[in-house]
Sequence to fold (343 residues):
Amino acid sequence: MYQSLTLNDLPARDRFALWRETVASAVAPVPYEIRSDHADEFDATMHVLNLGAVQISAHIQSPIHVRRTAKLIRQSDSEHYHLTLVRRGTTNATQAGRDTTVGPGDLMLHDTWRPFHGTHTGDRRVDGIQVMVPRKLIPLPPDQVGRLCAVRVPGREGVGGLLVQFLNQVTRNAGTYRPADAARLGGVCVDLLTAVLAHRLETEHAVPHDSRKRTLLLRIHAFIERSLGDPELSPGLIAAAHHISLRSLHRLFAEQGTTVSDWIRTRRLEQCRRELASVDHRHLAIHTIAARWGYTHPGNFTRAFHAAYGLTPSAYRRNQEAHSASGQVLSATSSMGEHSSAP
Fold:
């Protein structure tokens, strides 16, 4: 499910060859020609997360050129959409007579059944996330989606911003997921990508109802997360911000086995718990942390925290401080285990 590769410990002369071999074996079976103007001093780190039929990989590497030629297409008829999120550097892409340059924070799509050429450039290192999704999983007409290939797709706002947030989060925590999480995370990725493409094509009505509903719920979750510090956050405010009825909002959360108010309370308490356990926030008073996450009455916060975690906030903080030294040792040991190299 998860593979990681770092080239730092290898001789510089061997790195690029190993990188190409690893990409060919670890990344979805869609071959590309890969070359680099920095092959003699190449450096790279890659994390690959396989989520069922969907693959997400994060790359930090020296600048490269990639090409999918007619010959390679004849050798492999695997039809995928390939999405790139640029995080550092720039990507220039050419497909179907279109040519575009994409910078940090934006997205670019191409398909694997037509010739493609891409150049990832930057100062020494480029940083990006790649997503491979089988064509059959995107419930939109391929001829329409094809109009978005080699086109810049904004990733800083709207549904595009939500997809970028998901990709950054899922790759940041790549080593923590269990096999049972794979299908669910892959489904979320497909739903978000479908919503982004449909929005760009102005054909949201073509997206299946269940997919639209899951995307709406993800947007609502993101809105709540951004608004946890607002004491006025309420189901009515959330419904109005998303142009749905209060009844529809409650139905969405009931289908997830919870309520809007319970979701808000759980997320607020979790953020407070995280800051109470953090060394970086020990200088903050408990009531200050509570207020940062929407609790205006310290007594209400103490009761809610105790009900959720079985300890008062002050007792929880003391408990975390007492175990901080052993916790740091465990954290360092865990981190070492997460960065093992792929075979």
Summary: DSSP finds 13 helices and twelve strands in the chain.
